[in-house]
Amino acid sequence: MSHIYQPVMIRELLTHGGKASIRNIAAAFLARDASQLEYYEQITKNMPGKVLGKHGIVQRDGGEYRLIIDPSSLSPEERDELVRLCDEAISAYLQKRGTAVYDQPQSRFGLPLGQSALRSPEARWVPLRIMRHFGGRESY
To answer: Do both 59 and 12 map to the same domain?
Structure first.
């Protein structure tokens, strides 16, 4: 992929008024790195996708996931509350573990090995709280 780093970086700079943060440039590289996208597609299917499916929160339809509940049936306040619960779970886990969540062993290709960093008790309780929010129903 190194053959496209320079044009991707120049494009990112041009489309952002001549300057961009290192993080934004890195994100532009990542967005074009098919191996990383394929890795995280597998993570999505094998970890949170399966678990959330078992809890009746999402359903996989081919290459997509969808919420079982119709998001348009939520009030803006309910949606914001559920987003807040997710944000709190992520923040709590990252605060507890710090940058160590990113210090996973690397494969020979530089890809993380092992389980997802967000498989903590804090992250796992979010689906249960979402189910409780809707009266404990597992299908909506």
So the answer is: no
User: How many domains is the chain built from?
Assistant: 2
* 18: DSSP letter: T
139 occurs within a structural domain:
no
> For position 3, what pLDDT does the model report?
80
Give the 3-state secondary structure of 49-106: HHHHHHCCCEEEECCEEEECCCHHHCCHHHHHHHHHHHHHHHHHHHHHHHHHHHCCCE
CA atoms within 13 A on the CB side of 60: 15
Q: Do 87 and 19 have their domain in common?
A: no
Amino acid 65: pLDDT = 95
Residue type, 131: M
Q: Distance (Å, rounded) from C-alpha 83 to C-alpha 124?
A: 15
pLDDT for 20-33, tens place per residue? Answer: 999 999 999 999 99
